[in-house]
């Protein structure tokens, strides 16, 4: 389906002008979205719902392309947080007064919304966590502790986020288990033949990312689950980059667990979701001990509640869960199929525009040449310019992209790079913003190529009147040089 944004003609000369047009287009279509969203009313028409998108960076309009790290919250979510604190706030599950009942009702109704959103069979299959990382650690330290032993094998893939590697490494070390990694194929997608060659009766657990936060490829989760179950292994799906962008049906996938982060799906930070099949959650021992998760406590022992309470010790992130419920309502109103269709369009546009720039190496499958569907994110490197330098100078143009290893350091080593730049889109981003980004990228690359080769790279910067001289040393490093700090996600 053709997306409406092409009706706005965007001059490519100044980012400032780009931003004005984006805002104007947004203001014009707000009503349409409220009436009946389709993929053609996403993008510009949504932008007025997201106040932060009007921010200016050094006087330039913000182009926010760091959504794979954290997305932004629309007004209904911000309002839900305010409403909660002004009218509903108290603690949950433990009071008979009106505010305690309101807080409990708001918190539990968020659980129901998330359960319906993921098509869980029961609302008790949703455990609220602080994030996806906590969800994975919870599974590794409860189910893993009870079920993984000496000689057992855990299968992960080379494209996992650190949060789906390190908890299993800690477990494997404690238990004497082995971790094996599914490789990439020549298109930088998951190699299913590698997976099949690793799978055996020794496999007890498969941890797999649904959509890679670096390669952008979508993995065949239902097939992985089917084959894993056939050898008796359980499957945990890291769906952080999938749940915000397309319809995910845990029932259809038949996975044992699935994790997602609130802050990547228009919700706040500090909230995540662990879905688990009820019978699997029921078989798991408790994790953290404390209030809320117990049935009875004696001086010498305690008994525990059923899931999900068993895994929610202490006061939970109540306002965050309520806000996540509002985010889910908002996503439902937009329609997950509409979002996926819209993002497919902007994603191929982004890939095509980046692909036209000389000396850029784009990671992950080529959606056009190889016909692969990929997420609305592209990680890349310039042959001669360090990712951190590019991203810092792009920031001076108002463009927020991520530079670093995106918590996929082992994958970056395989790709032969210490890090990369990543531009990641969401449903409020537009083709016009992509044009602004590409123009800015050309300008920054040109600026670097104008710098004389002679010693004293600072002279080049000074001559250009550019700020950011702190990058002088990094400016002399290639994309393969180590030398950047930990940059989360
Ligand atoms: C694929 C993937 N898995 C896991 C995480 C960790 O999520 P959280 O920040 O909710 O712990 C992220 C994001 O940081 C991610 O992109």
UniProtKB/TrEMBL annotation:
Can you cite a GO biological process for this protein? cysteine metabolic process
Report the CDD domains cross-referenced here.
Answer: SufS_like
Q: Which reactions are catalysed by this chain?
A: (sulfur carrier)-H + L-cysteine = (sulfur carrier)-SH + L-alanine
Any idea where the Aminotransferase class V domain is? 63-436
Q: Which cofactor does it need?
A: pyridoxal 5'-phosphate
Which superkingdom, per the lineage?
Eukaryota
Q: Which PANTHER family match?
A: CYSTEINE DESULFURASE, CYSTEINE DESULFURASE 1, CHLOROPLASTIC
Q: What is this protein called?
A: cysteine desulfurase
Q: What is the scientific name of the source organism?
A: Vitrella brassicaformis (strain CCMP3155)
Lineage of source species: Eukaryota, Sar, Alveolata, Colpodellida, Vitrellaceae
